[in-house]
Write a structure and sequence with these properties.
- The chain is an alpha+beta fold.
- It folds into two domains: 2-101; 134-180.
- The chain is built from eight helices and five strands, in the order E-E-E-H-H-H-E-E-H-H-H-H-H.
- It has a five-stranded antiparallel β-sheet.
- Strand 1 and strand 2 form a beta hairpin.
- It is globular, with a radius of gyration of 21 Å.
Length: 189
Amino acid sequence: MNSLVLFEAKQVRRVWSDEKQRWFFSVIDVCEILSQTDNPRRYWSDLKRKLDDEGVKELYEIIVQFKMAAADGKFRKTDCADAQGLLRIIQSIPSPKAEPFKRWLAKVGYERLEEIENPELGSQRVREIYRQKGYSDEWIEKRMRGIAVRDELTDEWKKRGIKEQKEYSILTAEISKATFGWGIGDASR
């Protein structure tokens, strides 16, 4: 499935990967927006070379090619990256437009380091995000308990040899069916 998202009123092509179960975004579109270049393909080519020269080898592990609609309507293979890969690429773009992303990445990275030192901070941040979204304290407490119970359950499944995402899905569907009388995706809910 191909679709578009908008960033600062500019289109970024994206495609859903059933295999990887996530969205992939056109790197060239993002380079064009952040670098404001007239030749985003050339910019991306030069950036790949620069990163390779700097020893950034993971770049070739995060780039996937998908056929995407070009300006002329034809579908062509395009370098794409998932959100994590795209954020890594954005770190390397020297542009004032990329700076807000870089500051945000630095802030999030710092927060995660704080959470390693004090795991309670992560829980507090999640609660605050839910409050900002308008959820009640009662709903937040139920949600946090639900997450804790789910973590305990999946940890137990892991101890018993469950490894594949599909196996977790099957077990979750069975629990839902036994508890509520319906399975995942059941339209009768």
